[in-house]
Amino acid sequence: MKITVLGCGGSSGVPLLGGPDGRGVWGACDPAEPRNRRTRSSIAVQAPDGTTLLVDAGPDLRAQLLASGIGRVDAVLLTHPHADHVLGMDELRIMNRIMGRALPLYATAETLGEVTRRFDYAFRGATPGFFRPALDAIPVRPGDTVEMAGFQVRLFRQDHKVMDTLGLRIGGFGYSTDVVEMPEAGFEALAGVRDWMVGCFQRPPHPVHAHVEKAVAWSRRIGAARTVLTHMGPDLDWDWMRENLPRGVEAGYDGMVLEVG
What we know:
- It comes from Roseomonas populi.
- It holds the Pfam family Lactamase_B_2.
- InterPro entries: Metallo-B-lactamas (IPR001279), RibonucZ/Hydroxyglut_hydro (IPR036866).
- The protein is an alpha/beta fold.
- It has one domain (about 1-260): Metallo-beta-lactamase, Chain A (4-Layer Sandwich).
- The chain has helices spanning about 60-70, 85, 90-100, 110-120, 185-190, 210-220, 240-245, and strands at about 1-5, 40-45, 50-55, 75, 105, 135-140, 145-150, 150-160, 165-170, 175, 195-200, 225-230, 250, 255-260.
- It has a seven-stranded mixed beta sheet.
- Strand 3 (about 50-55), helix 1 and strand 4 (about 75) form a beta-alpha-beta unit.
- The mean pLDDT is about 100.
């Protein structure tokens, strides 16, 4: 199983828009380090035959798929309905054409309610030539284990303070973006995971996202052999993380690939 980090940035990416020259606000991140340039968070999970589960579809999706050489999407899982995780859903229209069918889209009933309201045209059935996206809404719940694109995906609830989000586990791989407190059921679902990606927005505590100290403590509790940070903001410079994160914890970057047994 191959995990491609399509994007590992926070809701505004890195750099943020603006800056004195209009070329971005980098915060503590060195603009000369390419791994500090981060698009919005998403991953692709691929089987050896290329079957692909897309997790979240943010506004950078088109560029992310092209940069990573991913030419098919078999199913989509949304962790929650925040804009940085769903605003690329229009790009799935081309994936409909490639696959020749509507795509199953898995999410909680609450998330489906949001996206079917905001993207109602994508849930009206397929049109000849797929002139709009065609998505089949499939409700799921935390605690479910659901087959998606051939993968057995175990889902668990995460606390994002402003709403719940879905975490997921596929075999020895876990993914937890947009979480500030991990319920006990989440720790139980992640127990024994070998490779874990977790959202970590900055160094000091944040009201709705985990910070470095918390993410490291969670990793130790879970016992993951490898923890990769994602959903990172402009406070987290690549070189700083390389020098300061403990062994077994590392920063992700756009285009990173994890081979997971």
